[in-house]
Amino acid sequence: MSTPRKPLMAGNWKMNLNHLEAIAHTQKLAFALNDKDFDRVEVAVLPPFTDLRSVQTLVDGDKLRIVYGAQDLSQYDGGAYTGEISGAMLAKIGCTFVLAGHSERRQYHREDDDVVNAKVQAAYRHSLTPILCVGEGLEVRRAGGQVAHSVAQLDGALRKVGAEQAASIVLAYEPVWAIGTGEVATPDDAQEVCGALRSRLAELYDAEVAAGVRILYGGSVKSDNIAGIMAQPDVDGALIGGASLDPGEFVKICRFGELSS
Ligand SMILES: O=C[C@H](O)COP(=O)(O)O
């Protein structure tokens, strides 16, 4: 059965590529994407904050077929918060998406569910689409707690988020043990948690919201392992870290989004 959800392939550059490197990278990516016919997959890049202006200039000037977003935002809307970047600033520079709750933010910056929830709400206040990341660490996986853990993170992040807003969210299931390690979850592993997240959305909201939300898989995605993951009924794309730094490889991965739709 074909899915009504348009696949999304999002490249999270993490703390890589300065603003000059971002220009060269985006140009290579744009050339490779426009060279093929990518109509049925949405392609996004999530550069560091300092690259956003470079990416915006290329996307707007050359009418590129990619959208872009940020890797984080402040839970506050403005004022004396040194070092923070507000949702309003991201919206003004043309961001579509913003990550919330990435495991590296949870781990290295101690962002808990309350902070993630505040950031999700901040994103909505500025018409940004949150890509909410959830996923378990190795200990939880070994104990078989991956579904309960990921669903609890979803519940925490969606507190006080109404159905209309939740309908536009993007979820990303990223098992922490598979991020940057070369260990990729099996397609069944990905489906188990992505399916549970969709079921939870139906409980929290309704079947229509659940059916419309895109759920990505992330964790050591490459062009040689994406096909099986994209074949799963509740997986609608990927959040790609390391492999998104190679434009050719990233475009190959995006092609699987196109094929799966
Ligand atoms: O945001 C992306 C994920 O953390 C996955 O990163 P990775 O593809 O390098 O494992």
- Main-sheet strand order equals 1-2-3-4-5-6-7-8
Q: State the end-to-end distance.
A: 10 Å
Percent helix, as a range, is 40-55%
Strand content: 5-15%
By secondary-structure content and strand pairing, the structural class works out as alpha/beta
| Major pleated sheet | 8 strands, parallel, barrel
CATH homologous superfamily grouping: Aldolase class I
Q: If classified by CATH, what would the architecture be?
A: Alpha-Beta Barrel
Q: Number of folding domains?
A: 1
Small-molecule binders: glyceraldehyde-3-phosphate
Low-confidence stretches: none
> What sort of overall outline do the alpha carbons produce when their principal axes are compared?
globular
CATH topology: TIM Barrel
Mean pLDDT: 95
The tally of helices reads 12
Instruction: Give the number of DSSP strands.
Output: 8
Q: From N to C, what is the helix and strand string?
A: EHEHEHEHHEHHHEHHEHEH
GO molecular function, one term: triose-phosphate isomerase activity
Catalytic activity: D-glyceraldehyde 3-phosphate = dihydroxyacetone phosphate
Subunit structure: Homodimer.
Protein name: Triosephosphate isomerase
Describe this structure as you would to a colleague.
The chain has one domain (8-22, 33-238): Aldolase class I (TIM Barrel, Alpha-Beta Barrel). It contains twelve helices and eight strands. It has helices at residues 19-35, 52-62, 87-92, 103-108, 113-125, 138-142, 146-157, 163-166, 187-204, 207-212, 226-230, 247-260; strands at 8-12, 42-46, 67-70, 97-100, 129-134, 170-173, 214-218, 237-240. Strands 1-2-3-4-5-6-7-8 form an eight-stranded parallel beta barrel, surrounded by five helices. Helix 3 (87-92) links the parallel strand 3 (67-70) and strand 4. The mean pLDDT is 95. Glyceraldehyde-3-phosphate is lined by residues 12, 174, 179-180, 218-221, 239-243.
